[in-house]
Amino acid sequence: MNLLLNASADIALADSQLHNTVKMAYLDPPYNTGRKFAQYSDSSPVKDWLAMLERTLTGVRATLTEDGSVFVHLDDKYIHRVRCVMDDVFGEQNYIGTMIWEKKNRASYLHAQLADVTDHILIYAKDKSKMAPLVHSATAVGKRIPVHNKGNKPSVLEFPAGSMTFNFSDRTVPAGEMNTPTIESALLDDLIVENGTNKNAFRMSGPFRYGQDAVTKMGETPGAFIAPKPLLRPSFLSTEAKGKVLTNLQSFRVNGSPTNEDARAESELIFGTEKGDDFDTPKPEALLERLIAAATQPGDRVLDCFAGSGTTLAVAQKMGRAWTGVELSPKTISNFIQPRLDGILAGTDPLPLDGYTASAQAYTVSTPEYAAAA
Ligand SMILES: C[S@@+](CC[C@H](N)C(=O)[O-])C[C@H]1O[C@@H](n2cnc3c(N)ncnc32)[C@H](O)[C@@H]1O
Question: Is 40 in the pocket of ligand 1 (CB under 6 A)?
Answer without folding.
Answer: yes
